[in-house]
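Section 5: illustrative case.
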């Protein structure tokens, strides 16, 4: 369930690999996101420990059941604090586990002229006097070539961009708010991150690396890359990237080992350019972005072991922990810590070879906690084997070659290529879809709507997406892939039965938009994200029954499926049977109210 994706983070700082996982979640403490709000979102005396006022609905149409009401997380702002609604909607959020990117040993960029931190003050949105909507900016602790601020206003400053120039003036221009990031093509000097509407925590991003023993490191400017090509080998699960940098050729291979959640990068390059690999860690705050840079004091990176050829790290943000262990060839590379959350695997500069062959493999492992499993001691992970790049490549090749071959179904439309040119395109799209679904949607936790490629809905998975994204596994003779996420339902059955009982129903009711909560934070393993759609959806409830039936038909040993899934299937059926209300007028059973159908 590990996915490395090629995406740029803000600024002209290259195109690194960001790592997301099914188990990489974080729940930011409420008091950090809303420091001026005294309300606690948790109350151990209420159901599930949630401090929440529910919207009560009377079920039934003819007649309604006047003696019974069902609590739903609908119309949240009507009965709850807005901050609490926003918190329960966004949290828990998927977090970026680490970023691998190429860096160069080179000259340090000069700091901006003037004093970029000299912007504290009070500003007006339109220059009016007296100021109708003042924005007050106070400086926080300065950082290297960058600064942090807190800005407070009453109204619409979250749709403005702050531009600062070296002459000491500041002004604001209208700009769109894109994924919590202010963007303005005329304001290149400062980039700001917003973490909450109306009451901002603004920080200038710092992209300049701290000097290491080999001198400073810098990201590759994409404009310096020429003659590039990239090819994804679907048969072997191997990504080949080739490009020229400073008139020198670079060849890169990237692969992922599923069984150990290990990312491997191998490359050859001219030794004169000093090409290295940086492993850096960011954090997440309100969940709208899986990666926020510069908030170094909100997370910790502890070196557990650093020996020739191996680096073991312990990562922690609040109650969430994971470990990263990396290996590299000690005869050609060294590792240096270049910041509190950054490490560079650099070629040894004494080498006399004209070219350098190097590789870095990093294994990511959960420490605590997703699901009911207890925490793993970080020290135990230090002793775990980290596969070499060759081993990662071999595992990826074996897994993908096995996936593409029988008994799994395949599509072959070559016989129709001459008849209809669309046949080739349909075959191409089908095979690429199979690759993406196997790579991103075959993990131990239900798939997220956009897989692991984007962090939409703060990374939460939507239970109805399992039907769309995973039913094919049983129908295309790959039921073992579908069975992986069955464990999610088995482990969280108590959560679902508690939810149904709280609403007065029998059996188990499955939520819709869910994140994986750390059981150190709350006894609930998940909670429903409140809005006017999610809690009332009903059409996804029978999916687990139907998909278990498909496994029963597809597996060579159907009795195994029967015994493994019987409790989940029967509890789900009990809820489905108790949900309808008998209509004495139509002599039929009504669903709801409330109910949301598949069109939502």
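Designed sequence:
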């Amino acid at each position: 369930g590990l996915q490395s994706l090629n995406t740029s983070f803000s600024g002209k700082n290259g195109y690194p690999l960001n790592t997301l996982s099914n188990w990489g979640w974080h729940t930011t403490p409420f008091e950090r996101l809303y420091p001026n709000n005294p309300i606690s979102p948790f109350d151990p005396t209420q159901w599930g420990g949630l401090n929440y006022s529910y919207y009560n609905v009377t079920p039934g149409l003819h007649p309604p059941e006047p003696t019974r009401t069902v609590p739903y997380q609908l119309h949240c702002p009507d009965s709850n604090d807005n901050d609490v609604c926003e918190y329960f909607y966004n949290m828990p959020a998927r977090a970026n586990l680490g970023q691998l990117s190429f860096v160069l040993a080179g000259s340090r960029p000069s700091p901006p002229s003037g004093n970029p931190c000299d912007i504290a003050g009070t500003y007006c949105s339109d220059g009016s006097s007296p100021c109708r909507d003042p924005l007050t900016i106070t400086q926080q602790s300065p950082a290297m070539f960058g600064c942090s601020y807190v800005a407070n206003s009453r109204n619409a400053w979250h749709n403005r961009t702050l531009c600062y120039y070296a002459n000491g003036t500041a002004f604001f221009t209208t700009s769109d708010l894109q994924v919590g990031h202010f963007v303005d093509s005329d304001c290149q000097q400062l980039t700001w991150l917003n973490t909450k509407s109306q009451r901002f925590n603004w920080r200038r991003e710092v992209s300049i690396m701290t000097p290491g023993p080999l001198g400073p490191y810098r990201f590759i400017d994409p404009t310096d890359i020429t003659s590039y090509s990239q090819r994804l080998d679907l048969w072997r699960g191997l990504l080949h990237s080739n490009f020229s940098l400073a008139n020198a050729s670079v060849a890169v291979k990237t692969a992922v080992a599923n069984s150990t959640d290990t990312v491997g990068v191998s490359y050859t390059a001219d030794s004169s350019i000093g090409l290295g690999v940086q492993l850096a860690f960011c954090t997440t705050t309100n969940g709208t972005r899986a990666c926020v840079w510069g908030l170094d004091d909100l997370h910790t990176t502890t070196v557990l072991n650093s020996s020739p050829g191996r680096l073991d790290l312990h990562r922690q943000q609040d109650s969430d922990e994971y470990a990263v262990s990396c290996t590299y060839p000690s005869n050609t590379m060294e590792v240096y810590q270049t910041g509190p959350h950054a490490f560079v695997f650099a070629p040894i500069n004494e080498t006399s070879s004209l070219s350098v062959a190097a590789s870095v493999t990093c294994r990511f492992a959960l420490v605590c906690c997703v699901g009911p499993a207890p925490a793993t001691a970080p020290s135990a992970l230090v002793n775990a084997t980290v596969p070499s790049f060759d081993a990662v490549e071999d595992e990826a090749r074996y897994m993908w070659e096995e996936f593409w071959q029988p008994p799994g179904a395949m599509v072959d439309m070559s016989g129709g290529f001459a008849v209809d040119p669309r046949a080739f395109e349909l075959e191409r799209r089908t095979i690429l879809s199979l690759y993406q679904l196997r790579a991103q949607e075959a993990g131990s936790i239900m798939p997220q709507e956009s897989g692991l490629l984007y962090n939409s809905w703060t990374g939460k998975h939507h239970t109805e997406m399992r039907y769309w994204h995973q039913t094919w596994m049983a129908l295309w003779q790959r039921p073992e892939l579908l069975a992986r996420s069955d464990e999610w339902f088995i482990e969280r059955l108590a959560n679902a039965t508690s939810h149904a009982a709280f609403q007065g129903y029998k059996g188990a009711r499955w939520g819709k938009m869910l994140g994986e909560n750390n059981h150190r934070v709350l006894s609930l393993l998940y909670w429903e994200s409140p809005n006017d759609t999610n809690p009332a959806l009903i059409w996804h409830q029978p999916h687990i029954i139907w998909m278990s039936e498909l496994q029963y038909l597809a597996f060579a040993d159907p009795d195994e499926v029967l015994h493994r899934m019987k409790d989940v299937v029967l509890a789900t059926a009990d809820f489905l049977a108790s949900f309808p209300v008998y209509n004495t007028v139509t002599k039929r059973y009504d669903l709801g109210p409330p109910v949301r159908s598949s069109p939502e």
